[in-house]
Every structure is written in structure tokens, then in C-alpha cells.
Amino acid sequence: MGKRKSGAKQQQQQQQQQRRSQWSFKRLMVGAILGFLVIQVIRIELQAAGSTKTPDEWRALVKQRPYARLPTDARSPCPMLNLLANHGFLPRDGRHISKAQLYDALVLVGAPPTITYGFLTTVVYRMYHRVAPDAPFWTNFVAAPTIDLDMLAIHNLIEHDVSLTRLDSALDDTAIPQANLVRRMHQWTLQHDGQLDMQAEHDLRKIRWYESTLSNPKSHLGLLYQFSSSTECALLLDILGRDGTMRADHIEALLLDERFPDDWYPREKAYPALQALVRPLKCWYGIRKSAATLESLQALSNDTQQILV
């Protein structure tokens, strides 16, 4: 009887030791993965540390890259990417853009390095990889070596309805900014203290949402794309703009002509990662809570209050 109890106790101790060993191995693996990720983040941030420019450095740089665009150039629904291509920070024709080229251009104007690198690596260049019908199965998981800017106009991948500066894809080419929408933004801003701030952006986006549902039978802005548009809000006001605002006299140059104004310069330090994560949530909440309606346009002058329905 005593031997059986002793044997059972030894077996129990062995099982406990095995569980402790397994748990130690799991902790070791988790620690190794976290350590690797931390090292990668540090590496990316250090490499990007010297990428941003002072205002004087930027002015000297942009003088060497004047605005130029041909009708045959590929362009995207994203004004920021078009700006970078129009000034030669990306290939001017908008084609065959590598991940390194796109990353370097975005970091140059202050995009958060780690988030940008992760998004391009895990989303953009995999999402837009074109798989041939006879390609092996594993090629579905391969990143595209390059992308063209007009590929970003493929509907409901990253591009979505309810843009501030474009009509929905069912109504027109989303690579083309709409002059009346951009000028409406300018007019709205002039009547709201001369700056496009967070509240103005939320109100204008809410109005565009109403317009989209009326003018486009295929209009769709699900939760995923609500957050996508909220990320655009952060990029618009914190990278093209600054500290949650955009100057009224910059709106048409940046969003309609898609060229850098002479007195514009990028962030001198990269957009903080925490702010890049929190700001879109604030934008999303602000859009949802905006009380703006189609009737809100009646305060604008006749040439900009047209409702696109």
C-alpha cells in the first residue's frame, strides 16, 4: 500500500515537472519572439531617425523636384501618394513602385516608421499581388515586388466610398479629385476660423456620407472602412496638416492640384506611433457624433453648396 502511494506521488511529481518544463519553454519562446520584435522596431526607428527634414532642408530638396505630371501617369485615390509622385519622390509615372521606395517617401514626410513598414509589408504589397491562374498555391502568400498607384483604386481593398475629395468608385474615377468637393472644403474652412480642424473634417465627412447614400445605390462604408477613413483623417490633419489642423490656403494646392505649396514643409519628427493609433479612434468617434446634415451646406455660397445627388 505504501509502495503504491509512493509510486503515485513520484508520478505526480514527474507530471508537475513536465508541466513546469513545458511552461518554461513556452515562456522562453514568447520572450524570444518579443525580443526579436523589439529589436526590429528599434532597428526600423533608428534607420528612419535621419529621414525627416528641417524646413530649410525641405525647401532645398523640393526645389530639385518641381511639380510635373503627364496625362498618362498612374495616380491613386490618395492625395499624399499623388503629391509624392508629382514631385518625383516616387516614380513620376506612378508605376513599378517598390516597397522600399514607398516606405522612404512616406517616412520623408513624417509617417510613423514602424507602423508604415508593417502596413506596407503585411497588407499593401500582399493585398495587391496579382496571382496568375496557373500559379502554385503558395504564391497566394507572396508579396508583390512592385505596385502601380492606380492599383490602389481597386474598390473595397483599401479604397472605399465616402471620400472627402473623390466621388464613389461607382460614379467616377477615384484617382481624380473633384474640384467642387475640394473647393467646398476650402469654403467651409474659411467660414470656420480659416483652418480645417478636427470638427470641420468630421462634419464634412458626415455630409459626404449622407451624399454617398443618396447618390450611389452601391454605397458601402462598413466598420472596417469607417476606421480606414478615420486613419485618412489623421494623415490629412497631422501629416499633410499639422497638429490636427490644415491651413485653408493649403487645401486646394494639396488636395486638388496635388502639389506641395511653396511654404509647406513636412513634420520635423516622425508622427508618434501612439498618436497614430489613437487619433483615428478619435476621428471615428467624432464622425459618428457629428451633427452635420445635408442642410448644413446651406450656409455655403451657391457655387459650393451643390449636393451631389
UniProtKB/TrEMBL annotation:
Cross-referenced PROSITE patterns: HEME_HALOPEROXIDASE
InterPro entries: Chloroperoxidase (IPR000028), Chloroperoxidase-like_sf (IPR036851)
Key words of the record: Heme, Iron, Membrane, Metal-binding, Oxidoreductase, Peroxidase, Transmembrane, Transmembrane helix
Cleavable signal peptide: none
Pfam families: Peroxidase_2 (PF01328)
Gene Ontology terms for molecular function: metal ion binding; peroxidase activity
Membrane spanning residue stretches: 28-46
Cofactor(s) needed by this chain: heme b
Gene3D superfamilies: Chloroperoxidase-like
Residue stretches making up the Heme haloperoxidase family profile domain: 54-279
Domain of life: Eukaryota
PANTHER family, per database record: HEME HALOPEROXIDASE FAMILY PROFILE DOMAIN-CONTAINING PROTEIN (PTHR33577:SF18), STERIGMATOCYSTIN BIOSYNTHESIS PEROXIDASE STCC-RELATED (PTHR33577)
Family as reported in the entry's similarity comment: Belongs to the chloroperoxidase family.
UniProt protein name: Heme haloperoxidase family profile domain-containing protein
